[in-house]
């Protein structure tokens, strides 16, 4: 009985790891997300059980506790394997399983049920999306640090952990489009409103879009999800690299 928690990468199917592909090839069951590219499922055997447990902003298909229970149930179900042995279960998640993927919560449930687990890292969209367009998130003399933060903190939490006073040179905000107006207004308390900002929509996919602005106007742009919001002077470096400066 082993569950592999596998990062599928940011979108482009070729950005999955070799290790992830090896594990998928021997899977009896694959539980996959909305953000993991479906083409990746083709690595799994044709007769493997493939279960969609997708979550999408605003329209959760399954609640997290239901997903946790389902993973445990599938891992314990010996009829899932060809030889009546314990099945090999792959929990495929977009990007990296531990970057806002709630992978830790799933592992805690597995641990409670006494099920073995292994985590296979993935290329997170937080880094993979900017890097794949050639936007350096650190750059000598411009950015010596970056912060990856959620723009959508659990609204039921009594005390907010995200205070937007981060000192890192580059801010990378995931799940940040729904609250972009409120969040950029907060960030402007700590940063120059004219700080360069950009959004990468559908990063690493064929319908990728890059939208430029500044901290004080990026919220007014027309943005679709999934998207990440990047704030910092490294965006000017990217513009220099691509001769995009006015
Ligand atoms: N574990 C994932 C992140 C899950 S949170 C990872 O490591 O990438 C979901 C958020 O990730 C989305 O709201 C969006 O901000 C970001 N995201 C995921 N895939 C993306 C993509 N292809 N392009 C832009 N942003 C993406």
Radius of gyration (CA) equals 20 Å
Please report the number of helical segments: 6
Instruction: State mean pLDDT (0 to 100 scale).
Output: 93
Physical arrangement of strands within the biggest beta sheet? 3-2-4-1-5
Gross morphology is elongated
What's the short story on this structure?
With 246 residues, the chain is of the alpha/beta class.
Please explain how this structure is put together.
By secondary structure, this protein is α/β, with parallel strands linked by helices. Helix content is 23%, strand content 21%. It has six helices and ten strands, in the order βαββαβαβαββαβββα. It has helices spanning 18-25, 64-76, 103-112, 125-133, 180-187, 234-241, and strands at residues 2-7, 29-32, 49-52, 88-93, 116-120, 146-150, 170-174, 196-201, 209-214, 227-231. A five-stranded parallel sheet has the order 3-2-4-1-5, sandwiched between helices. Strands 6-7-10-8-9 form a five-stranded mixed sheet, covered by helices on one side. The longest helix is centred in the N-terminal third of the chain and has 13 residues, at 64-76. The protein is elongated. The model has no long low-confidence stretch (mean pLDDT 93). It binds S-adenosyl-L-homocysteine. S-adenosyl-L-homocysteine is lined by residues 10-11, 35, 93-96, 99-101, 124-126, 129, 174-175, 200, 202-205, 225-228.
